[in-house]
Specification:
The chain is built from 16 helices and 13 strands. By secondary structure, it is α/β, with parallel strands linked by helices. α3 crosses α4, α8 runs parallel beside α11 and α13 packs parallel to α15. The longest helix is centred in the C-terminal third of the chain and has 41 residues. The structure holds adenosine-5'-triphosphate and magnesium ion (MG).
């Protein structure tokens, strides 16, 4: 026992000496350092019973951070913040908390299953005469893990996996969630061509504040919860860990708001995929591969994004159309920027082809105002697993708005609103607009908002009745013309696009 303790003590001293030696070497002239290190390494390896693993900041090229390094950094931020004496602080999630990590040239000791290990954080600055515009880019950081060779198996088999798992979980807790787009403008971050660009995602939408049928809301929350915790289940049934949602309904019913609420609920990033900005199927594949786990990939207004309503491959165009096209784009002329060649089969592949199996924990959400226009193949169950209709505001929905916007749980005017909502269609976006207080003082203001809403409902009802009268009239006219055997062209319903079934 004593022997064991003294060996451990000796080990600790040697490791500390090694660390000290590493520090001193940084300040020696390069030639001298090389000469000494070649020989000292040989001598040390006879007596030194420790193994060192280094984790470099950059992998391969200088532009991509090593995932291992980043994960270890997160792990050490939690594991070492109490033990290291020199720490570095940075802004974390939501810019509200500070994330503390060990500073350069700092060392901490850690114990895992009774085994002692040492982590050190190192920085090398090449001593060249080159003048760099960005001096910090020349710095080269790395972590070193030191442990006794008898613990090799434990470290390789258990400890490193533990560090990676913990580090990833900590990184998720500390990260700022991001909203990515593939249709970049110069204000967005990111430097490679075709790469996703992002801004920090800070939408305040929550399910609590979403106005919709409470039962339906509960069902969606349960579904999301099951998906988030479904890693083992998806593995068991042999399915890629992803799920498709189709949100449909008229404009202003809360589809985009629901996506934000989902992202906040799951704590996922959002990838807003602009299909018209994707050159072809290959680029679509590439974009998909670049998305991270724990994310929602959104294609808004899928029916308008591409000609996806029909056949899987684009059909050959009729000759006249081709001529027309040639006139618009003479050979050599620059085509329109949004001339996407993404096909329906490319998109289907993107959702559930082989490539979709890379990585997991992704939701794919399509939104549309015209579900009837979409190809059934695109939205069949298995691809779009859950179809959610968002429709006109109900009285239950109104109560959510009243509570959020006006802090009202009840009011004498509620009953009148309930009766009117039963016979009049009103969009949630319109309710939201009417209940937005004109000033943020006093209860009287809340009442005037409710009165505004009642007036709006009355006007909407009058318009609805007028539209019905007009439709009846036009039908009668058609009938009478038909009886007089006059050939007429059918009247198109211009409002059909915004109608809900
Ligand atoms: N169900 C809802 N619950 C809470 N707020 C809503 C709801 N529906 C609409 N709103 C409000 O109306 C505004 C517009 O809603 P949103 O953009 O989510 O509609 P949408 O269905 O995505 O419309 P579009 O089809 O035009 O994209 C939101 O900013 C939100 O304030
Ligand atoms: Mg929307």
């Amino acid at each position: 026992m004593l022997m064991q303790t003294s060996w451990t003590g000796l080990g600790t001293s040697i490791a500390s000496l090694m660390f000290l030696w590493t520090m001193i070497r940084k300040y020696l002239p390069r030639q001298f350092d090389l000469y000494i290190s070649t020989y000292t390494h040989k001598i040390f390896s006879y007596f030194y019973p420790y193994i060192e693993i280094t984790f470099q900041e950059y992998s391969g090229n200088r532009f991509s951070h090593s995932k291992a390094y980043t994960t270890i950094k997160s792990y050490l931020s939690a594991a070492t913040s109490e033990r290291a004496r020199k720490l570095k602080a940075d802004v974390g999630k939501d810019s509200s908390n500070l994330v503390v990590t060990m500073d350069d040239h700092e060392q901490v000791t850690e114990e895992f299953k009774g085994v002692k290990l040492w982590w050190s954080s190192n920085k090398k600055t090449p001593r060249t005469q080159t003048i760099s515009f960005y001096p910090a880019q020349d710095e080269h950081r790395y972590f070193t893990l030191t442990f006794h060779h008898r613990d090799r198996r434990l470290v390789m088999d258990c400890y490193l996996a533990h560090v990676m798992e913990e580090g990833k979980a900590i990184a998720v807790r500390n990260r700022q969630r991001k909203l990515y787009t593939n249709n970049r403008s110069k204000n967005w971050s990111g430097y490679k061509k075709n790469e996703w660009s992002y801004v920090v995602f800070e939408h305040p939408a929550t399910f609590e504040r979403l106005a919709m049928d409470p039962e339906k809301k509960e069902e969606i929350i349960d579904d999301l919860e099951a998906f988030k915790n479904g890693k083992d289940y998806y593995e068991k049934i042999g399915k890629a860990w992803k799920r498709g949602y189709l949100l449909y309904g008229p404009p202003g019913t809360g589809k985009s708001t629901m996506i934000s609420a989902m992202a906040n609920f799951l704590d996922y990033d959002v990838y807003d995929l602009e299909l018209t900005a994707v050159k072809d199927n290959t680029e679509l594949k590439k974009l998909f591969i670049e998305t991270s786990n724990k994310s929602i990939i959104v294609v808004e207004d899928i029916d308008c994004s591409l000609d996806l309503s029909g056949k899987r491959e684009k059909e050959e165009k009729p000759k006249e159309e081709e001529e027309e096209e040639k006139k618009k784009h003479p050979p050599g002329a620059k085509k329109e920027e949004h001339d996407s060649k993404v096909t329906l089969s490319g998109l289907l592949n993107f959702i559930d082809g082989l490539w979709s199996a890379c990585g997991g924990e992704r939701l794919i959400i399509f939104t549309t105002n015209h579900v009837e226009k979409l190809d059934p193949a695109l939205i069949r169950r298995g691809r779009m697993d859950k179809h959610i209709e968002l429709s006109y505001c109900t009285f239950e929905g109104f109560k959510v708005f009243a509570k959020n916007y006006l802090d009202l749980e009840s009011h004498p005017l509620f009953e009148r609103i309930r009766l009117m909502m039963e016979i009049t269609k009103i969009l949630p976006a319109d309710v939201a607009e009417k209940l937005m207080p004109k000033s943020f003082k006093g209860k009287r203001n809340a009442e005037s908002c409710l009165e505004d809403l009642i007036q709006f409902l009355q006007e909407a009802k009058a318009k609805e009745e007028e539209a019905i009268q007009l439709e009846l009239k036009s039908k009668e006219e058609i009938k009478s013309k038909e009886n007089g055997s006059v050939e007429i062209t059918p009247i198109e319903n211009g409002c059909a696009n915004r109608e809900v079934k």
